[in-house]
Amino acid sequence: MPNFLKKRAFLTPERTAVYYQEQTITFGELYQRSYQVAGQLEGIGVQKGQYVGVLLKNNLDTVVILFALQLLGVHSVILNNRLAPAELVWQLKDSKVASLLLDDSLSDTRAFINRQLPSLCTVTKGDLLTGITCEPDIQEEICLSEVCTIMYTSGTTGNPKGVIQTYGNHWWSSVGSALNLGFIEGDCWLCNVPLFHISGFSILMRSVIYGMPIVLHDHFDAEDTINDIHDKKVTIMSVVGTALRRIVDALQDRRLPDHFRCMLLGGGPAPLPLLQACVEKEIPVFQTYGMTESSSQIVTLAPEYSLSKLGSAGKPLFTSQVQIIAEDGSQAPSGVPGEIVVKGPNVTPGYLFLPEVTEEKFQNGWFHTGDMGYLDEEGFLYVLDRRSDLIISGGENIYPAEIEAVLLAHPDVAEAGVTGLVNDEWGQVPIAFIIKKAGTNPSSEELEQFCKEQLGKYKVPKAFYFMEELPRNASKKLLRRELRKWVDQ
Amino acid sequence: MPNFLKKRAFLTPERTAVYYQEQTITFGELYQRSYQVAGQLEGIGVQKGQYVGVLLKNNLDTVVILFALQLLGVHSVILNNRLAPAELVWQLKDSKVASLLLDDSLSDTRAFINRQLPSLCTVTKGDLLTGITCEPDIQEEICLSEVCTIMYTSGTTGNPKGVIQTYGNHWWSSVGSALNLGFIEGDCWLCNVPLFHISGFSILMRSVIYGMPIVLHDHFDAEDTINDIHDKKVTIMSVVGTALRRIVDALQDRRLPDHFRCMLLGGGPAPLPLLQACVEKEIPVFQTYGMTESSSQIVTLAPEYSLSKLGSAGKPLFTSQVQIIAEDGSQAPSGVPGEIVVKGPNVTPGYLFLPEVTEEKFQNGWFHTGDMGYLDEEGFLYVLDRRSDLIISGGENIYPAEIEAVLLAHPDVAEAGVTGLVNDEWGQVPIAFIIKKAGTNPSSEELEQFCKEQLGKYKVPKAFYFMEELPRNASKKLLRRELRKWVDQ
Fold this sequence. Notes:
Chain A is α/β, with parallel strands linked by helices. Chain A has helices spanning 4-11, 27-43, 60-72, 85-94, 107-116, 125-129, 167-181, 198-210, 222-231, 241-251, 272-280, 355-361, 400-408, 444-454, 480-488; strands at residues 16-20, 23-26, 51-55, 75-78, 99-102, 121-124, 147-153, 161-166, 189-191, 214-216, 236-240, 262-266, 285-291, 296-301, 312-316, 321-325, 338-343, 362-363, 366-375, 381-385, 391-393, 396-398, 413-423, 427-436, 464-466.
């Protein structure tokens, strides 16, 4: 397989690749700039096959750097810039990165990382892009089984895991999406979701594979989004429920233009009133189900079914398969809930440096998502519950166990339980239930500050409730579902 | 990978798959009918892994049978129904088919084949479709490296060779085409080229992979084509130059509707006046270069370049590569002609039962097409000459050596040389130059009749010229290029 960007720049050099603020760049220019940056990366010692950390924001330079890393055949460990420095240090150590590229604005984070990992070479974007360049040794051809990116995802066990995404995973995801949503000259995809998430990164990959321009925003703003859909002739965009709600509200009596053909909605089930509002405003919503491990959407619901199959995530992409596994390990008949398992060339080969976890999550080639759901008679998937206790807040996944682990490290906390509270703006926000250690009396403010030092802001509980007891089963395992019941009352 | 048709029928059972005359069939129905026919095929002893000959015409039953064979995992040897019975017998023997399915109207052909190959089981379509059925053992999953189809192509050596086309070849061809031409809901592909050619068969494969309806015609008729483009909302069609010429003529002052977005023109270079006429009539022509060995188009020229890059076949598909090899075996610089070599997952793994020929035609993974051409500075391919002496007549490839071999078998012919004469209707037609054996005096009519018995009608020379001498080089090899010069004068 040819190098994606190089091939695209050869095929359609004049076509626009990215619109970012006032800048426009063609595929030809994107290749030239990435080629130059590849030389600068070699200048700071970056080499094929290395793991290199990337801690950047949504902008044009980031796009160039991400493709430069692909030109060199580097495994990019793409880090979430909303994480706390302590979380980043954990992931940098875990992924054994040779170096870290980071945004110039993150000087405090850089100082913290340098203190914690003194032997790690950290390079700011500014230093990289003004550094000396050389003729880089680029990968003319790529192998679909090679590692392209690593993205961390947390789990019920607390420790984040690096999800391996190969070039093939991204390729098949793009092709599967094209066969499902269609692709035609004139398509333009708006990306205001983070490039460090698979939702944003997958748009970059589709751009070079399809030869399609993207409109890149550095943050979500409903009015800017609506304006660019009109001005830049955007036809598709990816959203989570929170963003879609804000777009619908901001539209008021307006309509999206006719050329806009697909609102790809991921990040958890959408509430009915929102979907109905979209039908009223003639916004073509495609609901999807996907995860970092499936390199973005693996199941999508076409808009013709958005109300008749309300609540369904749809059917799998052409090359992917979905099954429901009952508790006894057998395939559940239609209508019967069980664990959602998925298979396909867009599904990760496993977790970085975690062969046991990989083996546990894959059985006969099927990836066990940990999510619960069922298939109806016609094969439409209904997702009942994201991975046991997952909290989804504004499209970000939050795992209670990770926050509990932080709280339990506080000297005054004896027990901690975290769950999600329904929130109009974010979908859900995390809240914590605490049992104090005897003789101590920590305040909510104190615990909040403690969490802020170790967790991304969106993970910090929005409320702390001090209790006498937490719900546990006979073997003393915390019953987070019971916590949720307290909240729902 | 899931079975293509089964997966498509699961994903979009209600969508129209094929319009044929007054009939319409959905993907759900196409799967059900193919499933039933798969049972009937098993009833006559057809099994997975067998080679089975298919000699059918363009109609709905043929579509069903071709997919039924795929459901069973049979290698379909798809035969050209324009060939003479003697040619068919040769291919049936060469491919070691276990049985032959053929159209009821071909009773003379069947009788001839039965006489020549008495042990071969021949079954008419009528008998097959009225036969007993059983629950077939269908292939739920397919492997991309498995053989799907065999199509015969002749060569300069005279004997036709069976080109192996895997499921992967067809898959990547479809995906490459979608990434190149785009694909969107509402697309509809008109097929009035033969299903026994890769040009037609590839439309069938795209139909199930994209979930796109096709309009199938049993023969080419310009007025029917124009009517169906309007009535059935056809957006794309595949044509050869002859057919496009007739459509342009038949249109007169009319225009094709706006929804029609792509006229995919293959089967040899298009004459300039035709392309200009298409520009005038606003027909979006995509010129292509491809062959049976590349499972249809491998290089395509977008219409924005149709005049600025006049005469070019365009650039390769995303996953494919093209190079020009000079006589000394090195890669030719841009502008310098040489042999066109191609590479990509749509390119055949080789020729059936011909490992030596396969090895000779493939070098370092590159397939040597035998066609001459060059690449310009921007990488656009210009095809100078199809495989040395190839004659292209109405989209059918004719190899002079094959016709010469037949003529040389006539008792009165001492030497024979065949070349193509430019023809307004067909592009080219074959003509023959003959040296009679001493003491004999065969007539043109006699030779024509002799050819008709052994060659498809389109291969029979349209004129016979009796000469004293044929142009040969020092080693007495026939110089067909010199013959062509006689014709061009």
